[in-house]
Design brief:
This protein is α+β, with helices and mostly antiparallel strands. It contains four helices and eight strands. The strands form two sheets. A five-stranded antiparallel β-sheet has the order 3-2-7-1-8. The chain has a three-stranded antiparallel β-sheet with strand order 4-5-6, covered by helices on one side. A hairpin with a 2-residue loop joins strand 4 and strand 5.
Length: 233
């Protein structure tokens, strides 16, 4: 009987110890679970804050990019407009270049010689203008008439018509570009200036760091020519 009682007591003690161990393990597991949840929540909150910060930074960057694109588009548009105005001659321009003064010959005409050889004609002026264009002149004027693609230089009796405005000698041609290059183009051996001087036509070329060329006084209006839609520039 005593032996049975002792075994029963031992069993109860073992059971109690098992429950204690289980209770301890459950307690530890619970604490670990709570800690993990707390850590996860902290991480979620931290990631949420980081995400919000990145979204805000992304919006600011997109706004900056859009502003830069707009400025870039505005700069491109301004550059294109300035280039078109230069080509159309609608604005006054200034820069380094040369000034050429041409006047009829002042030497006595020989007998039986054609007097037209000693005076300046429209084709003579056109030769000068073409040489200047070929030498890279960026803007040209003739007796304060801006020369553009649509300008006409033609004979009008004893005068020359430029942009439907009559001009008489001396003819003053101004050109903006590299002064040495423009001068060399006119002073080539057997070139325009040498041919003029052979017949006594007066040629004076002066370089300048500040040549001013006026705008076209009456810009050409286009009534028939239109841009083709859908074409890429």
């Amino acid at each position: 009987m005593k032996k049975f009682f002792t075994m029963d007591l031992q069993g109860k003690v073992l059971i109690a110890m098992v429950f204690m161990v289980l209770g301890f393990m459950l307690s530890v597991q619970y604490k670990v679970t709570v800690q993990q949840r707390t850590i996860r929540m902290d991480r979620v909150e931290d990631l949420s804050e980081r995400l919000k910060g990145m979204e805000t930074e992304n919006k600011l960057l997109l706004q900056e990019i859009n502003e830069l694109r707009k400025k870039g588009a505005d700069n491109v548009a301004d550059h294109a407009l300035a280039r078109l105005q230069l080509l159309a001659g609608t604005t006054e321009v200034e820069g380094a270049g040369i000034e050429i003064v041409l006047d009829d010959s002042n030497i006595p005409k020989k007998a039986n010689e054609n007097p037209n050889l000693y005076i300046i004609h429209d084709e003579d002026l056109l030769r000068v203008l073409n040489e200047l264009r070929a030498a890279g002149a960026e803007a040209i004027s003739l007796n304060d008439q801006r020369i553009v693609a649509m300008s006409e230089v033609r004979c009008a009796g004893p005068t020359v018509s430029v942009n439907n405005v009559r001009s008489a000698p001396p003819y003053v041609i101004k050109a903006i570009g590299a002064p040495k290059t423009l001068t060399s183009a006119l002073r080539l051996r057997g070139g325009v200036a040498e041919t003029f001087e052979f017949w006594g036509i007066q040629v004076k070329i002066k370089s300048s760091e500040k040549v001013r060329i006026p705008a076209l006084k009456e810009p050409r209006n286009y009534k028939y020519a239109k841009n083709v839609e859908g074409q890429q520039q």
